[in-house]
Amino acid sequence: MKKLLTTALLASTLSTAAMAAEDNTLAAYGLTFSGNVALTSDYRFRGMTQTLNDPAIQGSFTLAHSSGLYFSTFASNVDFDGDNVPHLELDPSVGFTFTLPFSDKVKPTLDLGVVEYNYPSHTKDWDWTEFYAKLTFASLMLDGDSLFTNVNYTNDWGGYTGSNAWNFNASYSFPIAKGFGGVLGAGYSKADKDIFGYGDKQRDDFVDWKAGVTYGFKSVPGLTAELDAIGNNFSTTGLPNSVKRETDTGAVFTLTKTF
Length: 259
Hints:
Blueprint: H1 2-28, E1 31-40, E2 44-45, E3 48-49, E4 56-65, E5 69-77, E6 88-99, E7 109-117, E8 128-138, E9 146-154, E10 165-177, E11 180-191, E12 205-216, E13 223-232, H2 241-247, E14 250-258
Antiparallel strand pairs: 1-4, 1-14, 2-3, 4-5, 5-6, 6-7, 7-8, 8-9, 9-10, 10-11, 11-12, 12-13, 13-14
C-alpha cells in the first residue's frame, strides 16, 4: 500500500509539472489538458471488483479542444480470478461534449462518445467496445451539486461477442458541510444473454449501487478522499467465500488528486 501511494503521488507531481509547462502551447491551439491520479482500496466496476478486492492505482488523462472534441484514456491495474488473466486495463475513449440550452439557469452538458476496454499483453478476447451518452446537470437543486446520468451500449460486453447489453446509471453528488459532500448512485445493466454473474448463477440483468461521503483537502488543492459502500444484487448463495467477497457489498476508500 505504501509503495502504491508513493507511486501515485510521484505520478501526480510529474503530470502537474508537465501540464504547467505545456499550458501556454496548448492554449494557443484551443487545447486543454487535465487528469487525475487515484489510489483506491478496491477497483469496482458497476459494483463488481476488478482487483479481487485488492488496492489499485489509477490514472485518467484528457486532451480537449475548445470545439468540444476530446480524447481521454484511463489506466488501472486489474486482477481477475483464474489462470492466464490480464493485470492491466487501458481504456482510450473519444467523444464530443456540448451544452444544451435547457433553461436560463440549468444548462446540462451532453457527452457522446465511444470507449474501448483494453487489456494489453493479453488475448484480444478480453477487449470490448462501448458507446455512451452522458448528461450532466450542475447546481440543479443546490449550489455545488451535480446530477450525472448515462446510457451505455455494447454488442461485445466483456468479450462476449454478439452479446447486446445496455447500462443505465444515475448518480447525485451534493455538498453537506464545509469540505464534505455526499454521493448516491444506482445503475441497471441488461443483456440479451445470461452473461452477468458467476458460474451457474449467471443472469441477463443486475442492479448496482453506491453511497458515500467525500472530503476535499483545502491545504492540498485537487486532493479529495471518498469512502463508499458499493454493491449489487447478484446472488452468491452456495458460492465460495472468495467469490462472495468479489461481488458482495463492501467499503471502498479512494484518494484522488486532480490536475
